[in-house]
Amino acid sequence: MSDPVLSIRDLTVEIPTRGGLLRPVDQVSYDIAKGEILGVVGESGAGKSMAGNAVIGLLNRPAKITGGEIWLNGTRIDKLQGENMRRLRGKDIGMVFQDPLTSLNPLLTIGDQLTETMLQHLSITQTEARKRAIAALEEVGIPAASERLDSYPHEFSGGMRQRVVIALALCAEPSLIIADEPTTALDVSVQAQIIALLKRLCRDRGTAVMLITHDMGVIAETADRVAVMYAGRLAELGPVREVITAPEHPYTDGLMGSTPLASKGLKRLRQIPGSMPRLTAMPTGCAFHPRCPKAQDICRHDPRPRRDGGRAACHFPITHSAEETA
Ligand code: SF4
Q1: What is the model's pLDDT at position 23?
Q2: What is the structure's pLDDT at 26?
């Protein structure tokens, strides 16, 4: 990979509680290249959003980064505070969240929000900012863009609002977009349109994307590579096609078996027995061992980390025949 836009190295986030230290993100490492879409997938509580929030400096107290490093375009950013972090958000990192209303100010028109963001981060005039705001709305498919510039967020439908949020996230020309469940709150009929739009715009501009979702179908349609998280740790990381067709980690294998899209051709969907452990009751060794059909003694006390160049953090990864991986 050429120099990555985002590089996360052994990132650890901890939450001090009366009952002890909880670790929702545990030594997670991945890179995202220019123009690449990395899908970060996992069940609720797997740590995928917490890792994204750590990158943009939006961890809710008392959660904090206690280990590892985050680099953006060659600059270390995990120690940035206050104004420096705020400047980075919006300019270098754009954000698209599940609920578009959390990203939009209900008291300002769409045009004011777009032009304000551009004027804050780009050296352009008010007239140029307005011109670019219209172009940005046209690009995300808002009809009659120049008239809609003076509309307020509540005057748009959910799908249109999310288009506006994408325009807002991209208008300062960031090098990285973090999209956290960007379609979960939308009607099924518009989900695919929003994902296709995000993919096209980021590809065209060479923007790196961290796409956080619980939906393996969205990952399969959109991502170049996928990072599978389980109980705060990275279970598997690899090219999306390979991970889907020939998962190496038993958890990924279970996830694929329980996903309709990936199980096409299977008579019945499989279920993974049990549930993901709570942070307060994390098993020793590999966190997946109580649910894993391949678990052996070593798994119960030694959490094998993923090695550079390898795909799965597993003592006994699943091997596949050449036909399966073709
Ligand atoms: Fe299963 Fe052991 Fe691999 Fe964990 S390390 S996924 S318990 S085989």
Answers
A1: 96
A2: 96
Query: 312 alpha carbon to ligand 1 midpoint, in Å?
Result: 10
How far does the centroid of ligand 1 lie from the alpha carbon of residue 28, in Å? 17
Q: How far apart are CA 3 and CA 208, in angstroms?
A: 12
Least confident interval from 46-60, 116-130, 188-202: 188-202
Global model pTM greater than 0.85: yes
Bridge-based pairing of strands 225-230 and 233-239 is antiparallel
Tell me the pLDDT tens digit for each residue of 2-40.
689 999 999 999 999 998 999 999 999 999 999 999 999
How high is the mean pLDDT of the chain? 91
Residues contacting 279, CB < 8 A, separation 6+: 15, 22, 23, 24, 45, 232
In this structure, whether the domain defined by 6-34+41-87+224-325 belongs to CATH 3.90.1640.10 is answered with no
Give the span between the Cα atoms of 176 and 196, in whole angstroms. Answer: 17
Pocket test for ligand 1, best of 236, 249, 255, 299 (most atoms within 8 A of CB): 299
Ligand 1 pocket, 315 CB below 6 A?
Answer: yes
Q: For residues 172-198, b (16+ Cβ closer than 10 Å) or e, as one string? A: bebbbbbbbbbbebbeeebbeebbebb
d(CA 102, CA 105): 8
Tokens of 290: 């109580």
Which residues lie closer than 8 Å to 250 by C-beta, 6 or more apart?
Answer: 288, 292, 293, 294, 314, 318
Number of alpha carbons in the 13 Å side-chain half-sphere of residue 266: 13
Question: Given ligand 1 and candidates 249, 251, 282, 289, which is best to mutate, with the most ligand atoms within 8 Å of its CB?
Answer: 289
Q: Are 42 and 237 in contact (CB under 8 A)?
A: no
Q: Quick check: CB of 304 below 6 Å from ligand 1? A: yes
Find the 14 Cα to ligand 1 centroid distance in Å: 24
Each domain of the chain, given as residue ranges in start order, spans: 6-34+41-87+224-325
Average pLDDT over residues 274-279: 92
- What span, in angstroms and rounded, lies between the C-alpha atoms of 278 and 283? 9
